[in-house]
Amino acid sequence: MPKFKLPFTSEIIRLEQIEKCYGLGDLEVSVLKNINLIVGKGEYCAIMGPSGSGKSTAMNIIGCLDRPSSGQYYLEKEAVEHLDDEDLAYIRNRKIGFVFQQFYLLSQLSALENVMLSMAYAGIPRRERQERAAAALSRVGLEQRMYHRPNQLSGGQQQRVAIARAIVNQPILLLADEPTGALDSRTSQEVMKIFQRLNDGGMTIVMVTHDSGIARLCQRIIWFQDGKIIDAQLTPAELEQYKQYS
What we know:
Elements: E1 11-22, E2 29-40, E3 44-48, H1 55-62, E4 70-75, E5 78-79, H2 85-94, E6 96-100, H3 111-120, H4 126-139, H5 155-167, E7 173-177, H6 185-200, E8 204-208, H7 212-215, E9 220-225, E10 228-234
Parallel strand pairs: 3-8, 3-9, 6-7, 7-8
Antiparallel strand pairs: 1-2, 1-4, 4-5, 9-10
Helix pairs in contact: 3-4, 3-5, 4-5, 5-6
């Protein structure tokens, strides 16, 4: 079993010898190869690497959206790789918040209703859902826009709604996959300030990005290449050595 040095008091994510393959026999393709990684509580990490390096596949496994072919995945020290679909759905709903490049907001619903929707499956009473959704929208600076529909909001505002939706269930982990990919540079910086505030408040964040400027705003950078982690402890200052691949 690999040995890890964990600089934090507790861990959120532990991946041990994770492999992911698609296809069978001669058509089998290995996407992840012997991935070992720890993310500590309160960390703010970026996952980077060239296209096809396995970073999105790793993110899907961390988010319980996919299962590894072999290896162990511990979320808060609980092994989750063999849980059934219902248990994985519970974890996704209660423990993990997701932010994607596309906002995935329902056009017929207001910002408030979009955020409330993520709590419907948790059996939370409507009044409490409204209060928690309003509080989440206030955290991202949209208290004056909560009754607007997506087509009445800018791209940056829509991503803020998506972030509010991701944090409203008070997850232990926030996963962001290219969250600024559809935004201009100024709006990207505004969104990144929200992530920084969330991390300052104790939220653990793991973000996939191809943008080195965005990655440099994180505490630690994990570099994937050819399905392997080449370096799991890059600092923003050390990212330059991989610039040609990003």
